C-alpha cells in the first residue's frame, strides 16, 4: 500500500504513456512544432519538415533513451534509477500498444519529411540518420544494453 501518494502504481513512469489523451497530445505537439517552424519566414517547406523530424527525434531520444530514473520518488527501492524511460515503459513488456505507437510515429514523420523534401539527398541523409538514432535503441535486443558504456551510470 502506498500511503500519501495519489496513484496506485509503484512507478507511474511505466503507465504514463497509456494515459487518456496522451497520444493525441503527443501528435498535437508534433503538429504545433511543425506549424511554428513553417511560420519562420526564411525556412522553406523542405527545411521545415527536416527540422521537424530532427527536433522530434532528438527530443524523443533524450526523453525516452538518454534520461534515466523517474522524476518523482517511488517506493520501488530505486529499481528504476538505472533504466531509461523506454525500458520502464509498460514494465518492460515488449510490443505493447504504447511501444508500437512510439515506434511507428517517428517512421510516419520520416515518410512525411522524405516526401515533402522530394527525397533530396542531403535531407534524406539527415532524416534517415535521425530516424535510426531513435529506432535502434527501441529494438528488444537492446533492452538494458549500454553500447560502448554510454549512459551506463
TrEMBL record:
Principal place of residence: membrane
Membrane topology according to the record: Multi-pass membrane protein
GO terms for cellular component: endoplasmic reticulum membrane
Keyword Transmembrane: yes
Cited Pfam families: ORMDL
Subcellular location: Membrane
Regions crossing the membrane: 23-43, 101-119
Keyword Transmembrane helix assigned: yes
Gene Ontology biological process terms in this record: regulation of ceramide biosynthetic process; sphingolipid metabolic process
Keywords: Membrane, Transmembrane, Transmembrane helix
Family named by the database record: Belongs to the ORM family.
Assembly description: Ceramide-sensitive subunit of the serine palmitoyltransferase (SPT) complex, which is also composed of SPTLC1, SPTLC2/3 and SPTSSA/B.
Known role: Plays an essential role in the homeostatic regulation of sphingolipid de novo biosynthesis by modulating the activity of the serine palmitoyltransferase (SPT) in response to ceramide levels. When complexed to SPT, the binding of ceramides to its N-terminus stabilizes a conformation that block SPT substrate entry, hence preventing SPT catalytic activity. Through this mechanism, maintains ceramide levels at sufficient concentrations for the production of complex sphingolipids, but which prevents the accumulation of ceramides to levels that trigger apoptosis.
The protein, known as: ORML1 protein
